[in-house]
Input
Amino acid sequence: MKILLASIPATGHFNPILVAARILKEAGHETAIYTSLVFRDKIERAEVRFFPLPEDADEGVRDFIASFFEKHKVTPGPEELVKAYSGVFINPMISQFRGLQAILKEFCPDVVIHETSFAGVIPMLLGPRSERPAFIWGSPHCPLSAQMAHRRVRDCCRAKIRKSGKNMPRSRVT
Output
């Protein structure tokens, strides 16, 4: 099965995605990660295919995060938090989505696993289910269990196989 994993350009959000990609690759799945250029070397060392975020969804977000923490040595007020959430999660959504659309045409994944803050999947979820792959959500604050991801991927595979009428392969994860 072909699996695309997606993350915003923040280490705490990316690391669980990389772990899941490695385990899924070891289980025999073709994996790719869509995230920041900052993580390219780590991804390629794991022998996972890399797709970069568009520049404004990558550098723009990394710059925003850096400046936010520089300005706020103390806890920010509600207005600043709204600005932060918008700058990191909401504003990059359309750019992430457009990049994701291009990757779906090139890589054609069966499943997209994304961490909770990757808003680029939201516009796609609003469209017909028949025009997109399955999506699996994972939280960086409650790290995505790779075994759980493998089970979900296995279940997606089984559903596809049942539809095709072929025999079901056995999985080492139960």
